[in-house]
Model the fold of this input.
Amino acid sequence: MKPQAFDYHRADDLADACQKMTAGEVRPIAGGQSLGPMLNLRLARPDALLDVAILRELRGCQRITGGVLIGAAVTHAEIEDGLVPDNTGGILPRIARGIAYRAVRSRGTIGGSLAHADPAADWITTLTALGAQVILQRPSSRGSARRRMYLDDFVTGAMQTALSPDELLIAVFVPDVAADSRFGYFKLCRKTGELAHAMAAVFCAATGDGQRVVFGALPGAPLLLAGGDALDQASWRGALAERYPDMEEADITVRLHVMNKALKRSQTHEQ
Amino acid sequence: MNSKVVTINDRAVPLDVEPRRNLADFVREDLLLTGTHVGCEQGICGACTVVRDGRPVRSCLAWAVGCEGSNIRTIEAYDDDSVMIRLREAFSAEHALQCGFCTPGMLITAQDIVRRFAGQTIDDERIRYELSGNLCRCTGYVGIVRAIQRVLAGYQDEKPEVAPLGALETLDLGDLDAIPVEEGASAAGRAATRSQVDGNGRRIESTFELPHPPASVWTVLRDELPSVVACLPGAELTRLDDDGTLAGFFNVKLGPVAARIAGEGTATFDDDTWQGRVDGQGSDSRSNSRAKGSLSFQLEAAGEAQCQMTVAISFEMSGALAQFSRGGLVEEIVSVLIEQFQANFDRHMAGEAPLETRSLGLFQLAWMALRRWLRRLL
Done:
């Protein structure tokens, strides 16, 4: 199918982009690898698209104290290819490599994936486990207004985020992963590269705030369990049942299985 | 004079197209470069794969106007490419070209694989992983995998010439610590939600406490229905007659998905049992889908200044969307709706305006299920 007609805008810079977001129903688009199919199916019918993939301000990265800043329009392929400094012991490139297909990774961006907030997307689950933050910007009478949020606060539901309509996700902050940390990730897809039916991430930090496990590809936002009990397998079923009291037994079983796979990978360093 | 230009196969091409024209249609129909094939238009099948600024991309998911300033290469322009020359020979030798529909995309993907893995030995499984975004309906990947292995074997001691991809720039956001960290609203306080299949539809019910005397809550429900309906994000009551017939809209919005269902219905109240119900049905003319549903509520006293309210939403969708229903997601969406209704109703009781909330909707479930449905087709 072909999309319904829309206007297309390019922004000169970030300030211009934020300004253009305030004019009517404008949808920011970066790689368009998730929004594109929705446009083609006419599930999404915005008045206008605002192309932010070309903004130089979103196309960089930087190693800073405590972590790495990744611009929102950095693509999965660029992370896969090591163009972003890896402070995670290989976790970022490995996750990037598992996203969809190479031709999709060429265009799809880390910021677009997080802002789109598809529950089955890889970055949301992974970066929630790693304790990453997003940096948001909106126009303000005083110039620009920025704020930061942890991912588990940012994603509020299926395709729902804390972004306000005139706000852009401009960067992701990924904290350093200490060398002796353990990480495991597993996703269940019907076909290689397809959106996952179930996914799970396990992160045990060598230093800092300990253990975090995340159930992804749920009906809504990722389910994060943190702290001492995070690796208690008995608590997983309870947490799923509490969030989704009517989830079918088979679906719970699949998710526990996927989490156990992720846990095993975290213990054996298997990829 | 149009100043927008894209470079396609080393030729500068003016971009005089409407914004919704995708790159695949642009090269096929406007430039008659028909080697690029259009299959699924979802980014799944890979038949439309072209190279953009050195990397393979889906041309069905690129808007031609968005390619301004880019350098595009289609399957027609590989006569001088040493890797592609070897791939063509290998595809012939290994019978990797069958009906030919997927072949242009397969060759471009294969060229990318060879460029990235030349000099390495990789197993067939890895090649199949790399090919998973290119579907062959002849189911004949054996020859394609062999052809790629054959070309890779020829590059054991030499590397194909590869143009380096651009390094990323330095991102400068100033002092990160100066940007305040905000906490989001916790989902922990969400009211418990139950869901059950009810006939052909689904009924989702939630019970929560309100810090107001039941009699005064009932009066509000009974006499200020338009305001109560407005507490449900996306709902708008445009007409309410004395006999309880009503008309309005339900604006469905979830992420980028939006629809406006126009509907009509009736409202009934039972003053003796503190029960009320609004039934309605409607359709979205743009997606030609129909929905009918009901919102029912019941009050029970819980002390003098408190009451318990049970809200249930039942709905049934028909038309094209009905086959896409997926349980868990609907429950999630409706439970968020009820949660927002609760918060807004609370504010209304306190004499405050409803919060400005983005409405949620049911089209998301259609989208998720549609993807699954497409996957089964492909």
